[in-house]
Amino acid sequence: MKRLFFIFSLVVHGCILFAQKKEAIQSPGSFFPKERIKVLVVGTFHLDYPGLDAHKTDDQDKIDVLKDPKKAEVTALVEYLKKFKPTKIAIEAFPGWNATNKLREYNQGGLRDKRDERIQIAVRLASELKLDTLYSIDAESFDNELSKLDTNYFTKLFADYDFDNSDPYNAMYKKWLIYEDKLPSKMTLLDYFKRINSKESHRLGYGAYLIGDYKLDDTRGADILSVWWYNRNLRIFRNLQRLSKDPTERILMVFGNGHAAVLRQLLESSPEYEFIEFDQLK
Fold first, then answer.
1. Is 188 a domain residue?
2. Cα–Cα distance between 88 and 71 in angstroms, integer?
3. What confidence tens digit (pLDDT) does each residue in 106-129 have?
C-alpha cells in the first residue's frame, strides 16, 4: 500500500510540475515583436563649430577635419559606421537644407570642402553606400507655436533661462564640457565618438538640462524644458516613425549629442525599435 501511495504521489507531483511549466509567466517583452527596426544614433559635436550652442569651444581646442590626421580619422569613422549597414540615414536638418540634393552634389564631386558633420559623416556615408535619399527629420519645438499666441507670457516664462546660474552642479558640467573639448585633439575621432555615445555620457549629458535653470521658481524651469527641449526631441522621434516602414530596416541617425541622449531614452522604451549601442558594431 505504501508503495502504491508513493507512486501515486510521484505521478501527482509530476503533473503539477508539468502544469506549472505549461503555465509559465510571460515576460512583458514577450507581447511585442522580436524583430524591430534597428536604429544607430550617431551623437556628434558640430565639426564646423558654428558657435550656436550655449557651450562654445575655445579656438585652441578646435580640430580641422579637412586636414590630417583628423581627415584620415573621419574616414576611419565612416568605415566603422558602414558595419551597421544602414538602409536609411536621417539627419539633424530641416527640409530646406535639401539633403538629397546635397547628396547628389556630393556624388558629383562637390561639398568635399565642407566641415559640417552632416556632410562629412551622413552625406559621405550615403554616397559610399549608394543610397539615393537622405532624410531630414529635425523639428521645431512647440514653444515656437505657443509663443505666437501670447508673446508676453512666453517672454516672462523664458526670462533668465540662459544656462548662466549659481547652481554648483552647473559649474561641474562646465568643467566636464571644457575637459571634453580638449579630447578630440588627443584621441582618434572613432574613440571619441565611442566615448560620447556611451550610456554614461548620454545619461549625464541629459542631466545637464535637469539642474541650473531647470530650478527656476517652482515649476517654471520644468515647464520651459517640456515645451522646448523635450518636445523638440519628441517631434524628431515622431518624424523618425513617419519614415519607418518595415521591421527589417536599419536606420542611422546623425544628430547633435544633446539630442542623442533623449533619443536613446525614447528608442530604448519603444516596442518598434531596437537601440544599437554605438561601440558594439562588428
1. yes
2. 24
3. 999 999 999 999 999 999 999 999
